[in-house]
Amino acid sequence: MQLITVGTVAFDRIETPFGVAEKTVGGAATYISLAASCFLEKMGLVSVVGDDFPADVMAQLEERGVDLKGLEVLRGKESFFWAGRYHYDMNTRDTLETRLNVLLDLDPELPTEYTSAPYVMLGNLDPVVQGKVLDQMAGTPALVVMDTMNFWMDSAMEKLKEVIARVDILTINDAEARQLSGEHSLVKAAAKILDLGPKYLVVKKGEHGALLFGQDRVFFAPALPLEDVVDPTGAGDTFAGGFVGYLARTQDHSFDNLKRAIIVGSAMASFTCEKFGIERLVEISREDIDERIQQFVELVDFDIELVEN
Amino acid sequence: MQLITVGTVAFDRIETPFGVAEKTVGGAATYISLAASCFLEKMGLVSVVGDDFPADVMAQLEERGVDLKGLEVLRGKESFFWAGRYHYDMNTRDTLETRLNVLLDLDPELPTEYTSAPYVMLGNLDPVVQGKVLDQMAGTPALVVMDTMNFWMDSAMEKLKEVIARVDILTINDAEARQLSGEHSLVKAAAKILDLGPKYLVVKKGEHGALLFGQDRVFFAPALPLEDVVDPTGAGDTFAGGFVGYLARTQDHSFDNLKRAIIVGSAMASFTCEKFGIERLVEISREDIDERIQQFVELVDFDIELVEN
After folding, report:
1. B224-283: pLDDT as tens digits
2. Chain B closest CA to A290's CA: distance in Å?
3. Nearest CB partner across the interface for A218, out of B221, B225, B259
4. CA distance B44 to B36
5. Confidence category of residue A306, pLDDT binned at 50, 70, 90
6. Nearest residue to B133 (alpha-carbon basis) of B110, B99, B101, B153
7. A225 with B211: Cβ contact below 8 A
C-alpha cells in the first residue's frame, strides 16, 4: 500500500451557467484516488457509501489499483449527496443542498495493511475523522497531506488545529488561509499557519493557480488557461491527488520536488475542469499528462538578464 | 524622445482597510512615466493639470527625463481628482468620487518632437483623446501600447474599438477582457480581442498576476506575494510603464522579449503596492529592481522531467 486516502465518496448535482449534471459520481476521495492512481500501483481508500453507489465505478477504481477494503458499504442507506451551483465566473459557487446520509456513520477502522502506508492523504472531512485515521497508523508515515475547508474553521476550529499540528503539508484556498490565520497578507498567513505545525502550506487559488510556502521559501504555479471550463468540481481534490501521488511515487520531499508535485497536481486539476465530474479524469493517458505538463513548462518559461546600466 | 505617454496626472484620495492617504499625487501618466523612467533617458508626457499641481513633483519628473512640454497647466483650474476605497481583499475597490476638473479641457496638441517618438503609451483615458494622439504621430510608431477600462466599454464601445484596432498591444484586466469579447473563457476572449487588431493582449489580474496572449501563444507571470500591500492604486499603470519602458529600451518585440517585459512590469508594480501613491516608486534603485526581478525568477522556477512509465 503506497498511499491511503480518507475522504468522501459521493454523488453530486452540479449546475453551471453552461450546463447541468444531474447525478454524477464525486467526492474528495474519489478524485484524489483517481488522480493518484496515474502515478501509483497500490492505494487504499477509506470512506463509506450506501448501496446506491454504482458497482462499475467501484470496479473502475479497483482496476486502477485502488483497494476498497477500507470503503464501507452500508445496506439500505444512501451515499453522501452534494448539490451546488457555480457563478458566472466559474471560480465561486453556492451549495444548494447537502445530504450527509451515510457520512453520519463514518467511523473508519483501517484494514491492517493500510496502517503501514507511508503516504497518507486526509481529504476534506470532519477533523475528528481525519484524526482517527492518523491515530490508527502504525508508526509515523513518511508524509501526511491534509485538505480542509472553511466549514471546519467555522464549526470545529480547535479540533481542526489539533489535526493540522500532526500533518506535514496543509492544502487550503486563499480565503481559508486568511481565515485560519487572521492575516490578510498571504505571506504573513503562511508564516502563522506553518507555526501551527505543518512544514509546508499549499494555497489553492482555483483559476489563479497555487502557491507553495515553506520556511522562507515560496513557489507559484499558474492554472492553465483553458479554452472551456465545463465543471471545476473536484479540481482541488484532483490537484491534491496528483500532488501526493507524485510525491509517493518519487519519495522525495525536497522543496524542488514539491514544486514538481505542484505542477503535476495543477496539470491533473486542469483535466478535471474539462468535463463534468470524473468523466475527463478517467479517460486521460500518460501521454496526455506529459503533454500537459509540457504546456505548464512553456506557460511560465522565461529567461531574463538583469537590466544592465 | 524614446517614448511618449498620454494619460491622467491627478490627485487621489485613497482609503484602504489599513489606512488613508488624503491627497496624494496619482494619475495613469504619472505612474507610467515614473516606471518607464527607470529604463529610459528621454520621455514625453501628454496631459493636463490645474495650477494646484505641486511644482516639486513636476521637477522630479523632469529630473528623471520626463519632458513636460506636453503637460498643459491651466491657470485657475483644479487637477483631476479621484477618490476610492479598497475592499478587505485589497484587489477590488469602489470609486467614491471623481472630479474631472481640467480633464474636461484635455484636447492634446503634441509638441513637434513628440510626433516622431517610436514608442507610444496610451494610458487609460477617453478613447477619443487616445485617438487624437495617434492622429498626430508622424508615420507609424514602432510600438503602440494601450490601456483602457470598463468605463469606456460601457459608454463608448464603438469609439474604443476604433482605437483598439490601431494599437499593437492592449492591456486590460480579466473582467474587462470578458466584457470586451463577450466570452467567459480568457483563451476565447483573447482570440476575439486579437481579431480586433492588436498583435498581443495583456490580461492584468492584480494580485493574481498577468497573462500575455499572442497568436496561439500564452505566457503567465505571477504577482509577487507581498508581506504587506499598502495601496494597489497605480499598480496597473506602473506595470504598463515598466512593460513599455523595457520594450522601448530593448527595442525587441519578439514574444520572448515581451515575456521579459511582463516580468519587468510585474516587478515594478509590486513596488508601487508597498506604499501609498507614488511614494515607493520614486525611491527605488536599479539594484532594488534587479533584486526583485530575481525574486520573480525564483518564484516560478522549476525543472521537471516528464513522468517515466
Report:
1. 999 989 999 999 999 999 999 999 999 999 999 999 999 999 999 999 999 999 999 999
2. 6
3. B225
4. 11
5. low
6. B110
7. yes
Beta strands A66-67 and B200-204 are: unpaired
* Distance of residue A1 Cα from the nearest chain B Cα, in angstroms: 19
Cα–Cα distance, A308 to B1 (Å, whole number): 20
| Per-domain residue ranges of chain B | 3-300
Nearest CA in chain B to A227: B187
User: Quick check: A300 contacting B, CB < 8 Å?
Assistant: yes
Which pLDDT belongs to residue B88? Answer: 82
Is the ipTM above a cut-off of 0.90?
Answer: no
Q: Residue A121: CB partners within 8 Å, gap ≥ 6?
A: A3, A4, A5, A6, A7, A32, A36, A144, A145, A146, A147, A240, A241, A244
Question: Taking CA atoms, what residue in B is nearest to A224?
Answer: B220
The alpha carbon of residue B133 is apart from the nearest alpha carbon of chain A, in Å, by 30
Binding-face residues of B in 217-246 toward A, CB within 8 A: 218-222, 225-229, 246
Q: Is B3-300 a domain of CATH 3.40.1190.20?
A: yes
* Number of Cβ pairs < 8 A linking chain A and chain B: 116
Paired residues of A285 in beta bridges: none
Q: Does B97 touch chain A (CB under 8 A)?
A: no
CB A34 within 8 A of CB A282: yes
Query: For the segment B154-203, what is each residue's pLDDT rounded down to a tens digit?
Result: 999 999 999 999 999 999 999 999 999 999 899 999 999 999 999 999 99
Q: Mean pLDDT in chain B?
A: 95
Verify whether the Cβ–Cβ distance A256 to B303 is below 8 Å. Answer: yes
pLDDT band at B304 (very low <50, low <70, confident <90, very high): confident
- In the three-class reduction of DSSP (H, G, I as helix; E, B as strand; rest coil), residue A43 is classed as strand
Q: What is the pTM of this model?
A: 0.92
